[in-house]
Amino acid sequence: xxxxxxxxxxxxxxxxxxxxxxxxxxxxxxxxxxxxxxxxxxxxxxxxxxxxxxxxxxxxxxxxxxxxxxxxxxxxxxx
Length: 79
Fold this sequence. Notes:
By secondary structure, the chain is an alpha+beta fold. The protein has helices at 10-15, 30-40; strands at 2-7, 19-23, 50-53, 56-57, 70-73. The protein has one domain (2-73): Ubiquitin-like (UB roll) (Roll).
């Protein structure tokens, strides 16, 4: 399955793009998708990114559907 990955903030700067498309087998977990993102953009290992799937923070064991919206979120702070 082909997923479009959207990068925001510092993750977009490191990846040098705001989105890109990666190929995965069906039934992959968030952890597998994250590993694929790190393989494409190894510099992202330098920051503590999180993935949001369909606008919700994702657990690493969650299975990603082929129509999922995947967002790479950099570390953030707020109050």
